[in-house]
Design a protein that fits this description.
Elements lengths: L5 H6 L3 H6 L14 H15 L3 H11 L4 H16 L1 H12 L8 H16 L4 H15 L5 H12 L3 H8 L4 H9 L3 H11 L4 H7 L6 E5 L6 H7 L4 E2 L6 E4 L8 H4 L3 E3 L2 H12 L8 E4 L6 H13 L2 E6 L2 H10 L5 E5 L11 E7 L14 H4 L2 H21 E11 L8 H7 L5 E4 L2 H6 L4 E2 L2 E3 L2 H4 L5 E7 L2
Parallel strand pairs: 5-6, 5-8, 6-7, 8-9
Antiparallel strand pairs: 1-3, 1-4, 2-3, 9-13, 10-13, 11-12, 12-13
Helix pairs in contact: 3-4, 3-5, 3-7, 5-7, 6-7, 6-9, 7-8, 7-9, 8-9, 11-12, 16-17, 20-21
């Protein structure tokens, strides 16, 4: 493996550096606002009601009038606690001397919130303990406030390194999983791809909150104009259309609100553009997005197609997601179909086909704080047959000479290499290398495939395979 680009050094933050950059507690919280209570309520919604933090937290912040530094504190507390749940619960079990499931769930959530402040933030220990005990009294029960105080004081007696060293078992994968807050099965799946030396950096990158990436739709707004409109947004490092939002609500940016640009991870942009840039002989006017929801890749492909005189058909099985696709592609040469991609269309109809298959989403764990603790290895076993069927359909729909891009937001071998290997058993197919992407993004090759990583490239861990239909 060659030298890693600067993105690796920016994103694979070592824990010692991470501690130096931890958020300081706001000195003047407004008396009528309690960011910790907002964070607790958001965490409760996730653990009790299976809610998604990225959906419930913004609503709670708006309802409680938390803005600025208060909103920043509530966001870090919520997302950080949810990302670290497995590690926090293991430490709390040791500090309390009992299995964590012996405690009521709302108390566990409050203790995790307090422990996160003690172990991951630069909040003074006495403040973290006192505010969490007050939260327990108000939101859980005064009867367990003494227990909360005792447990958190024991947690505060050691830092994170000391706790993980004390709880280490000598099993390398188990100890790494504890240290970097990942279920052990995910740690094993990542190691199977990156190897043991690079594994800690890959895990640590999932615990660093990423910036919002915007996509400037070609032909509608330039990357430079979008950058200026964001007042400080940096040009993306790899995608010709990416801008990194410096902060704030992307929905307040005029270009996003009017459809000139949209929120889309830079890696997601790259794999879509790689399909559009793949060399193709003959006709190039009919493109297909076979699994289109929620529409980010469709919108980008539609904008590129518009500049080439091509048109895109987009298929989405869920009606509400099909509506999102239509919104993302408004004003572009895109026709949205609500239906099953496995049953769509006539064979040999399309020149370029994108199969962005439903997957485990393990490549985007840094953006979905609760996801790692909800997923099971069995989820992948249930997805693989669908992935194979969708890719087979994509190959059926491509014309001879056409290109099919198989994409997942997951690096897991069963969802990537093995699915493609199964498809290549079909006569008249061949794997082709994305030279456009390989030339643009160093250290992105995974054999003839493409594999992006948060710790290497600052993107989600997107996988891409390009397959040419030869007959």
């Amino acid at each position: 493996m060659g030298p890693r680009p600067p993105a690796h050094r920016r994103n694979a933050v070592r824990m010692s550096d991470r501690r130096r950059s931890r958020r300081r507690e706001p000195e003047n919280d407004r008396p009528n606002v309690n960011p910790r209570r907002v964070a607790f309520d958001a965490i409760r919604a996730v653990t009790e009601d299976n809610a998604y933090a990225n959906l419930v937290l913004p609503r709670m912040l708006a309802e409680t009038d938390n803005t600025g530094r208060d909103a920043g504190l509530a966001t870090e507390l919520t997302y950080g606690t949810l990302r670290s749940l497995g590690t926090l619960e293991a430490i709390l079990a040791a500090a309390s001397g009992r299995h964590i499931r012996q405690l009521q769930q709302d108390l566990v959530d409050a203790l995790c919130l307090g422990a996160y402040q003690l172990l991951y933030m630069r909040i003074p220990p006495h403040a973290a303990v006192a505010t969490t005990v007050s939260l327990v009294k108000a939101a859980v029960s005064p009867r367990v406030s003494g227990l909360a105080n005792a447990v958190l004081r024991k947690v505060a007696a050691k830092d994170l390194d000391e706790w993980t060293a004390e709880l280490a078992t000598g099993d390398r994968l188990a100890d790494l999983s504890l240290r970097y807050a990942h279920p052990e099965w995910i740690t094993a799946e990542f190691e199977a791809v990156v190897g043991p030396d690079e594994l800690p950096a890959a895990l640590e990158a999932d615990n660093v909150a990423p910036p919002v990436h915007l996509c400037a739709k070609p032909g509608r707004i330039t990357k430079g104009d979008l950058s200026r409109e964001t007042r400080g947004g940096l040009h993306g490092q790899w995608s010709p259309y990416a801008v990194y939002l410096p902060g704030g609500d992307p929905g307040r940016i005029r270009a996003v609100a009017t459809g000139l640009a949209h929120v889309q991870d830079e890696g997601s942009q790259l794999v879509a553009v790689a399909l559009a840039e793949a060399p193709l002989e003959g006709r190039d006017e009919a493109w297909l997005d076979l699994c289109a929801g929620p529409g980010g890749k469709t919108g980008l492909l539609g904008a590129i197609a518009a500049g080439r005189g091509a048109a895109v058909d987009a298929v989405e099985i869920q009606p509400h997601r099909a509506e999102l696709v239509a919104k993302a592609a408004k004003g572009l040469p895109v026709t949205v179909h609500t239906g099953d991609g496995r049953e769509f269309g006539e064979a040999g109809s399309f020149d370029r086909v994108l199969v962005d298959a439903p997957c485990s989403g393990l490549g985007a764990l840094r953006r979905r704080p609760e996801a790692r603790w909800r997923k099971q290895r069995s989820d992948i076993d249930g997805l693989v047959p669908l992935q194979k069927e969708l890719l087979a359909s994509g190959l059926r729909l491509a014309r001879p000479g056409g290109i099919v891009a198989y994409v997942t937001c997951s690096p897991v071998i069963a969802e990537t290499e093995e699915v493609v290997a199964s498809a290549l058993k079909t006569p008249g197919t061949e794997l082709v290398r994305s030279q456009w992407l390989a030339d643009r993004v160093p250290d992105s090759a995974r054999g003839d495939f493409v594999q992006l990583w948060p710790h290497r490239h600052g993107t989600d861990a997107m996988f891409l395979a390009l397959i040419r239909k030869t007959a």
